[in-house]
Amino acid sequence: MDPSEVEFIAEKERVSIVPNFNNATVHLISGDVGPFRAGLPVNVPVWMALNLRQRQKCRILAPDWLDVDKLEALKEEEKASKYFTKMPSEHYMVVAQLILSAVEDDIPRIEEIRMAVKNLWDVRISKLRSSVDTFIKSGGSHARLDYLTTMEINSVRPLLPHALDFIDRLNKASEGAPRRDLSQD
Amino acid sequence: MFCHGLISLDGGCQQLCHHRKIMSLCHSYVPNYFSIPDILATQEKVPCTFEVQVKHLGFLDPGSDKRDIEVGTNIELPFWMASVLKTQRPAIADVGLPKIFKESYRDILKADPVVVDLHKLAPYFYEFGMSLCMLNHRESPEIVNVLVESFKQRFRKILDWAQHSNIEVPESKKLDNAEKIIYQAGREVGSSLHLWLTEGGSLIMAAGMVMQHKKMKLTQRDLLQ
User: Fold this and answer.
1) Do B98 and B129 touch, CB atoms closer than 8 A?
2) What predicted TM-score, i.e. pTM, was given to this entire model?
3) A158 in contact with B at a CB cutoff of 8 Å?
4) Residue B73 burial (CB < 10 Å; 0-12/13-18/19+)?
5) How would CATH label the architecture of A63-174?
6) Which pLDDT tens digit goes with each residue over A58-68?
7) Does B159 touch chain A (CB under 8 A)?
8) Residue B66 C-alpha, separation from nearest chain A C-alpha, in angstroms
9) ipTM at complex level
């Protein structure tokens, strides 16, 4: 998948916004949104929040995990743990990127938050890479991948499946099926 | 036996391979008559020792001007021919190991597979090795072992190159062709992820089929008017 396709999927995540207009409930295939009351927080999908924000119709309330201290704590936890730790959102990287690019002036310390998200991502990606390497070297056939987000899984595709495919073929060669046994025809 | 005529037809096949490589690693699950990598891999020469006399084929041996091939003659033949000679009953020729799969070369690969220039040894090193093992040579298990271990060790490097550089790494020339396909596929993903991280998402394009369908509809409408 292309990262922009993952982004599209991630836009279904919900965030809180404070609208500055009144509107009745909007009925969408994915569920109802609203009703909108000026000044009262409401939960909407990310794509709608971004659109409303672009038209100056709302203020986005950043999710509570999008905060320097919380992200630092997550990073420390990630570093300490041998396995992957649970992320606050299935699409933390995408949601953070989208919201941070939309709300330049609503959130204080935005640069620090950006750095913290990137650090967290880097720690997890390097952990993923080394675990992929150990997985291949140990010759395992299955692995448990708890708490990996879609974007992270997407980053090792199609490398990992291709490599496993190839190793499987190499191993099968030893079974030594005769290639063309003309004498049996 | 008749593989060579096919090469001129390979355009279509290669396109197919290119199209399919996106999610599944396109290769023959041998035997596949139309697989281009397979044909190229089986061009590699292997030493053969003839066990029966073959009439009128003396021209295959460049070192002699006799009309027949005598028992015990050693000739290097392409693998596709050798495998047929070997699988006849009784076998016409015995197939030995080419030097890149002999013990001395296997030891080099065992010592450090990462630095070896596989492309120089044989462009289709793994494919060739796999085909060779199908002849049930007594050292086949050993060869498969070396192939699998080499690939596992080299994979880390492919992973690193694919995810960490926007330009093609010059050392990737040392990769065998199968490894190259994996590397290229990884590199495309790596660079699109990098682009996304630095510049954000782009517009999602409609699939090629959908676009073509739209065009067809448009032209049909034009024709009607």
Assistant:
1) no
2) 0.75
3) yes
4) buried
5) Up-down Bundle (1.20)
6) 888 888 888 88
7) yes
8) 29
9) 0.78
